[in-house]
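Two folds, back to back.
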Amino acid sequence: MAEQTESKAKAGAMIIPVTPFEQNCTLIWCTATWKAVVIDPGGEVPKIQAAISQADVTVEKIWLTHGHIDHVGGAADLRDALKVEILGPHIADKFLLDHVVESGARFGITDVRNFAPDRWLEEGNQVSIGELTFDILHCPGHSPGSVVFFNKDMRFAHVGDVLFNGSVGRTDLPGGDHAMLIGSIKEKLLPLGDDVSFICGHGAGSRIGHERMTNPFLTGAM
């Protein structure tokens, strides 16, 4: 992403794998202003803070794609440490953020807190960091309140656990719905364009066009 040359507002990005879930906590910054956002701080807050220092950027917001423990476990502590606001996910995931402690206990994770974001996000909203503006797409299915952040100028999206390289988000957790997830991908993500690259919540990213042609969940093989 930092190599984009055509975009009006260039960006840099760093993926910080955190927790045993190897969740892609993502630091994105505007290279014109060095203002940054942390997307999905799932845990290991000191590791995230070290990455912020390494990038030498100023984090002004935390954005959440959805409410699962591996994506939000460190959000409350990071908010307090950085004194910034949390934006997202969609309010349909409120039941998850109300039970972060309970969810963590199932996996032996104890250093987490229930919390509410400073602002819920809805379809059609926009969020900005520096000179970068992202459109909000509400993409339920993996969780009821999953959202995707899409920057039209850079042809880039952060899709959380909605879509993966070669797979899609699991739907066997509370509030999951496989048919709804596939509908979200086909109605919201595929129309963005085959050239759109994305970072996802776990593993390597990909491009929309590659997933349209090869992802077995989208080609009908599964």
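---
second:
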Amino acid sequence: MRFSQVVVFDAADLDAESTFWAGILDGQVRRDDDWHMISVDGDARIGVQLAPNHVPPDWPDGVPQQQIHLDLWVDDFPAAHARVMELGARVLAEAGEHNFQVYADPAGHPFCLCWGTD
């Protein structure tokens, strides 16, 4: 038996959310009425489900609270930062002395860009 993993985000604006993640992952979007699937090299990676009443989490500890987030490990933080901002992300917390920076995607889901400390 083989399981495949797909992370699914709820969003009121399917196009904004799926275009954002397809842009980050260099993927393609397959659009249905209330569901979009982002594939990379033919493999399903992220789903976006229509949720007209979606309320973004209030990061870090508001209401509703964050329940899940993605960590994206990058080789070139400045380039990755520029890319996610161009695609519609917003910064939730600057990196400071940490090796990660927290963002929200267009639907308000938190995610982090992380980098190594070689």
